[in-house]
Amino acid sequence: MPHFRDVKRTLSNERREYPIKMSHAYPAVNIGWGAHTMAGNDARALGMKNALIVTTGLKGTGIIEAMQGVLKAAGVESSVYDKATPNPKDHEVMEGAKMLAAGKFDGLISVGGGSTTDCCKAIRLVFSHDGQDVRSFEGAFKANKANKLPHLAINTTSGTGSEVSCFSIINHTDKMYKMALFDPNCTPSKSINDPLLHQCMSQDLAAYTGMDALAHAIEAIASRLMVQSAHGPGLWAITQIFENLRQSSANRNNEKAIEQMVWAEMAAAISFNSAGLGIIHSMAHAMGGLYDSPHGLCNAIGMVEVCKYNLSACPERFAMMARAAGINTVGMSDMKAGEAFIDLVAELKADLGITTTFGDLGLKEKDLDSLSKFAAADICSEGNPKDIGFNEMRQVFKNCM
Ligand SMILES: [Fe+2]
Q1: In a 3-state reduction of DSSP, which class is residue 15?
Q2: pLDDT in tens, 93-104
Q3: Ligand 1 center from residue 12 Cα (angstroms)
Q4: Measured in angstroms, how far is the CA atom of residue 6 from the centroid of ligand 1?
Q5: pLDDT tens digits along 17-64
Q6: pTM (two decimals)
Q7: Could you give the domains of the chain?
Q8: Rounded alpha-carbon distances, angstroms, from residue 91 to 96, 269, 382
Q9: How would you classify residue 57: left for phi > 0, otherwise alpha for psi between -120 and 50, otherwise beta?
Q10: CA 99 – ligand 1 centroid, Å
Q11: Cα of 19 from ligand 1 centre, angstroms
Q12: How many CA atoms lie within 13 A of 394 on its CB side?
């Protein structure tokens, strides 16, 4: 029988950077056409009779009014906090938390995409900590009090996966960067993914959010955290995205493609929720903080250059992604298969009509240093498979200008 001392030595010789893996829970989700009609019952089951709806407003879609009707029919009263904006800001969170504290609300319901859901998660954290500054929750596992209220997340975009993740991304408006709040207390109590609501996205938003989902899958699979249970949902998401994103974006009446993108974005999020992300997201967070740029578009812009940068760190995992995307890799080395996959990503981006660069979004040479510093320090950079420092980050940014 081996002695523990020897076993330990073996372990320390061979252990990887993150020897202990963490698998993070995701909430129960109702998925399918018409699932939004169950929101009233879901809210009641969570103990809600008077809910605060958090949203960016979804103006012109009629979704908020419809959801309030569904809730009312189930006996749930609701008020609306619609001051959340894309790339939600710290002061919007604090204002929402004040409104929550001022009323007699017994639950939170977010209705919208990632920005809305993230804002709602942060409002819940702040409220549960008696109004503590949202900036104090930046980083990992900062909550030290249980959530006081349930959160029902009704998702309307096929990309961020925030409805099933324990992340909330909030803009620090003094320092102009995005803070990552990573905490199980951010995970919603229950979620709803109804393709009917997702169908209200514009073509552009469908494309951008779909590329966000692709970034989640790629970064989770390539992540140096190596949470292997994330590979299954991530690879499946990649297959679905390559088979459906073009059609879903081009024809907002293609119900099959729209539904598959709902499943894909959720699978990709389940994947990154445990496996983490990489510098596609670090760069997007820096751009979103400084220029308020759309998250999915930033990911689409950075994706090809970052994949090229990372390929040599994990060619075997890029080869897995190539096969998931439908590439016949027989006879190819892993490096060649990875290169073919990156070409396919570039093709998808072009087919979606995405030609924007970081330069088009406002990136200037003079901001490269501060942007690279923020991105290198972003929590997502920890998961990047290839070592990255300030100079390398600066170069990748430059390549995307
Ligand atoms: Fe994302």
Answers
A1: coil
A2: 999 999 999 999
A3: 34
A4: 43
A5: 777 888 899 999 999 999 999 999 999 999 999 999 999 988 888 999
A6: 0.94
A7: 28-198 (3.40.50.1970), 203-399 (1.20.1090.10)
A8: 8, 27, 27
A9: left
A10: 28
A11: 25
A12: 10
